Amino acid sequence: MTAIYLIGLREGLEITLVVSILVAFLVKSDRRHLLKWVWSGVALAALISIGFTTLLEIGAAELSFEQQELFEAIASFVAVIFVTWMIFWMRRMARRMAAELRGKLEEAIQVGSFAVAGMAFLAVIREGLETSILFYAAAQGAKDTAEPLVGISLGLLTAVVLGWLLYASAVRINLTKFFMWTGALLVLVAAGIFKYGVHDLQEAGIVPGLNTYAYDLSTAFPPDSWYAELLRGMFNFTPQPSVLETVAWAGYGIPVLVLFLLPLLRRQPKTDAPPAAEPASTNA
What we know:
Keywords: Membrane, Transmembrane, Transmembrane helix. Belongs to the oxidase-dependent Fe transporter (OFeT) (TC 9.A.10.1) family. This is Iron transporter. It is a multi-pass membrane protein. By secondary structure, the chain is mainly α. The protein has one domain. The chain has helices at 2-28, 35-61, 65-93, 97-111, 113-139, 146-167, 175-203, 226-235, 243-266. The longest helix has 29 residues, at 65-93.
């Protein structure tokens, strides 16, 4: 549930930021009559995203065991692609997103009301579909079917509250740093989803090595312990993974995390300059 909460928080905050920027622009420019079109576009995007998630669940339920495992593997890999693209895109766009959105909305206003609704729809639907795929992929490892729903609901609710507080200027956070560190955590979450996808391929019999274990930490991390459950929910940690699962987790997680944090690692801390030498005194 922790991983799904983080997905809901991260994706939800992006959506609420987009919506709050659009709403604030219309309010400040005295165009409140266009707000209903923004909310119409947002509502339509939300309904389509929820419907897409439902279709994923219904479609997977009609498949055989091998087909379902293959479907879940594909969904996992698609989710990894989405989350990887999203965190790098957001790291680059966090500082200039507001200016670009305001510019696009101004262009849409010149076209007409439906263009405003369409602009709001397109701004939200991408995040909504990403959230649907990420939610479906991350929820496959949950033992309790209610946990994913609780996690995503709490994450989205937290995002809505943060978005409203930011809009009302009640709180101010450094969004660049927020997206940097939550992005780093999501890299580890994505590594776990990628590992789960490889496990699904092994379960489906497409990839060998299901019973060839890399290590066995079952004694130190009993599957029913709270800390093993926390690690499993957050990073898809399993105490007895196969060799290929371990290679997949490390092969994705380590290089992507390094590339994502590279701009931060390149920043050298400023050091105080040595004091300038005092000129030698001269005798009059």
